[in-house]
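User: Hello, can you help with two protein structures?

Assistant: Certainly.
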Amino acid sequence: MRIDIIGGGSLGLLYGGKLAFAGNEVRIWCRSMDQVLSLRTEGLHMTSVENLDASSVGPIRIEADVMDHFTEGWKRDPAEWIFLMTKQKDVEYIGSQLLAKIDKSTLKATHGMICYQNGTGHIELLNSLLPQWHIYSAITTEGAKRLSYNEVFHAGRGETNFGQVIDEQFQKENKNRRESENSLLYELRKAGFTSDLSNKIVNQIYRKLLINACINPLTALWRIHNGELMATQARVDMMRKLFLEGTAVYNASGIYWDDNLWDQIMSICVSTSANTSSMLQDILEDNPTEVKWINGSIVTLAEKKGLVATYHKSMVELIQGMSTKEG
């Protein structure tokens, strides 16, 4: 299967490397030519906590190019699936300047695009920019850290679910898409990812949103790995305050959440204990974070119901104050 991965960050390298190692034709579209040259000359190397499945993909088994060449590359050789694995801040540019310029007649060559962004708002944006595309949302709890341009550390195993945020009529009209979706599921599982297709992806989007909102900003503020959130009662108590405020907003908004969601959050802290959250990584590299799409989404939901999400609003303000690049 031919798969385009837009974004050479931690998850892009992890998925790209494992899918290529499992025998798929993978192209990784990177931000910098330095990363492209590294992948082209040295290949891609993967390690893990257990170090039992350390593996490498040689340069002849994986392709790489810069993102701005994507439209041109697509015209020559379209892929069956696209994985959009950039940060939220890049979604509008990629959607409007790269993907929207693809000749609509070539879209029949692809089965769809799967979006791995944290937070909310990007699916609605992409649907408006790309009305003829089949756009999926992916929710993953895989933990990864990019060590260099062509090295990635698999910090914690998780699950990946994807599905379309579409109405019932559209779903009925596209039942024939199941075969292509199942083929992708097969390749993901063969590559070692615990994966499934979900018809309740909206519930999972909001589940992941609250998980990220409770974990990511605190790891960034305290500059600690996920597992260190469990080290003191004060840290757990702060997570709990974010959790309770978030579930109160969900209740007011009519958003479903699992009864054992708090236990799930604790479990994720343990299973990804060595992981550096994406928000902490952004802070350490002085890059803009996704806090306004994560905790900020909960603040917006609260405001729509006449509520104030004090703790989540504080997270947005504190994180945005840590970098001069925050918008």
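That covers the first. Now for the second protein you mentioned:
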Amino acid sequence: TIHEFGHGYFMGLLASNEFEEPMLDEGLNEYWNNRMLSERGQGVPLATRLLKRLGFSAQFPQFQAERMGAMLREPADGIGANSWDRMSSGSYSSVYSRTATVMRDLEAQLGSAATERAFKAYYARWSFRHPSIADLRETLAEVSGQRALVERVFAQQVYATGKIDDRIAKFDSDEVLPQPGTQLIDGKRSELDEETIEKQISATRKEWKKANPDAKEGSGPYPFLTRVLVSRQGVAVPQTLRVTFADDSVETAQFDGALRWQRFSWSKPVRAVSAQLDPEQRHYLDVSKADDGRTLEPDKTLSWRWSSDAAAILQNLYALLVTL
């Protein structure tokens, strides 16, 4: 209902040409449809009526569901292409999902307030005037004040088929311990073998724990060298890397430009526990969000969640059987 109502604005009052530039009608309509449903907290239901009665009422967020149909891995046509000259009917269908995802990502980078101002200006300037994609681009760039960002997104996704595929390729955080060899002790060179070094490390740790009885696990007398390797298999987009450490401290770094990979490192008195690319979820066009994050220890949160849902279904099913 919301989607069809939206056609009265994008195809009707704005009078955009769905045949020449379907992005301006079906695409923008789908974006605002998902945006409104998301704001009211309404997701895509994953359960049938029967499953809902049994206690399973999971929902999938609107834009997360939308990205699944956006041809993320192998985009065939830019969303700005016309409706007839496309690789396949599936490519045309992606106008809905891919435009919604592109605009959602653009809003995540511009900010919601700037995006809303820009769309209000677009509507006010172009109602009944048959706007083109270029008119939309210029309005977004001018009103948001972020022309470089808008033009980059349009160049990569509207006029071309830029695949986004960034990932954390490697993540480790290792304690840097003294090594056997020659060391300068009290102004004299001494040769320390492996056994001597192990005793020295053990004594140092014992003294440190005595002096720091409340220290969190993952900290100690020796520094930890944390390294994160980020790789890029698609077009360049501005990415933020966030690394969280055992003492809840956080380090961030920026990954941008044409580099295919970049290694980041930190030396701190605590071990890292997790590394997350795109922590603010600005890039739903990324082929896989699953490889954006890593932890040193296995994270069982998701499996626990689904196990709890399955247990709830079984409990309700058993209760239903008892009443029969």
